[in-house]
Amino acid sequence: MNVVYLDNNATTRVAPEVFESMVPFFTDKYGNASSMHTFGGQVGKSIQEAREKVAALLGAQPEEIVFTSCGTESDSTAVMSALQSQPEKKHIVTTRVEHSALISLGQHLEHKGYEVTYLGVDSKGRLDLDELSEAMRKDTAIVSIMYANNETGTVFPIEKIAEMVKERGILFHTDAVQAVGKLPIDLSRAPVDFLALSGHKLHAPKGIGVLYVRKGTRFLPFLRGGHQERGRRAGTENAPYIVGLGTACELAMNHMAEENTRVPALRDKLEKGLLAAIPDAIVNGDQEHRLPNTSNIAFQSVEGEAILLLLDQYGICASSGSACTSGSLEPSHVLRAMGVPFTYAHGSIRFSLSRYTTEEEIDFVLDKMPPIIRRLREISPFRSVK
Ligand code: PLP
């Protein structure tokens, strides 16, 4: 059975070009980049080239790029650096719709005596910037707001937000894990202090990430040890993965214009087709400011998990907006923050496309999905609930 992979916000396929560029660093070029010999030095040179490619995609300087193990590490490092470098400040501002990389960190910090303000969103998942303005205080150490939401694809106005935060002299971090490689980003224009990205969301492998740290921003490392990454992240460099990420960033840059027309056209075909064929379905999130590859659709009176199981029988991979906690299916914290009605939130499915998605795959989903929803509605316990 062929796999129709529409779960690219969860993770992406490693691009063949990325894989190819990594192989020599497992076989021939296995030296330690920090060694004195030429053999290791060559690896260091390739790491530097990768750093330049990542920086180019972000409109950053190569020395502002710190390689990490994943997006979660980058997020934690940014927040912890801000707190430790300003020990007198005990307040953090973030949002209710962040990834668990920040929500869990925030909850942990609350237990440690910090105060965290979680900004709410409206029914389309948008922030109220006046609320952000009011939330910032003298003792705010950092504001951390995601660039784009992983579940709905809603994109926040990060340049404007960064300016507002910097006007108040506060550090600003953005979790751009879902945005990098999908949206043009120019950090030479946005006064962002920290930005997190993750390789496996843009066709590089799992286990490599980046923390961008603006030149001049006070920074304290999360991992201490060797002098790698100019003392900002200890641990022998993961050369194959760093090189792979460099290739992925170069590909993303070269493909961005084409992908930003082809991919949203396929996404819109899928979305319009499903809404036309299936009654009582709505799109979750801000359709005006949205990642080009993401569609989150709520089907009333059905369970998201049941839809996923039936899609799985055809090899179709997607995600639901629910999380199974202690036996009860809770709608996701993002959909709850948006106030999506219960009977819709439960039947929410996220489709996320990539450069490898084909029109045939979209047509296949358009063919399979309506009968699945019909079948589930016939047996749904919420059938009569409006
Ligand atoms: N932030 C966002 C918005 C994400 O979507 C994810 C992963 O899904 C992460 C952070 C965590 O990234 P990683 O899996 O590289 O730790």
Into which percentage range does the β-strand content fall? 15-25%
- The CATH architecture of the largest domain can be named as 3-Layer(aba) Sandwich
SSE order, one letter for each helix or strand: EHHHEHEHEHEHEEEHHEEHEEEEHHEH
Q: End-to-end span in angstroms?
A: 37 Å
Shape designation:
globular
Classified by CATH, the class of the largest domain is Alpha Beta
Oligomer: single chain
- The total domain count is 2
Question: Largest sheet, order of strands side by side?
Answer: 2-8-7-6-5-3-4
Which fold name corresponds to the CATH topology of the largest domain?
Aspartate Aminotransferase, domain 2
Name the CATH superfamily classification of the largest domain: Type I PLP-dependent aspartate aminotransferase-like (Major domain)
Largest sheet: 7 strands, mixed
- The total count of helices amounts to 13
Low-confidence stretches: none
Helicity, as a percent range: 40-55%
The structural class is alpha/beta
Q: Ions, cofactors, ligands: which are bound? A: pyridoxal-5'-phosphate
Number of strands: 15
Give the rounded overall mean pLDDT: 96
Radius of gyration: 22 Å
Walk me through what this model shows:
The chain is of the alpha/beta class. The chain folds into 2 domains: 16-254, Type I PLP-dependent aspartate aminotransferase-like (Major domain) (Aspartate Aminotransferase, domain 2); 258-379, Aspartate Aminotransferase, domain 1. It has 13 helices and 15 strands. The protein has a 7-stranded mixed sheet, sandwiched between helices. Strands 9-10-15-12 form a 4-stranded antiparallel sheet. Helix 1 packs antiparallel against helix 9, helix 9 (239-277) crosses helix 13 and helix 10 packs across helix 13 (359-378). The chain is globular, with a radius of gyration of 22 Å. The site of pyridoxal-5'-phosphate has 12 residues, from helix 4. This is Cysteine desulfurase.
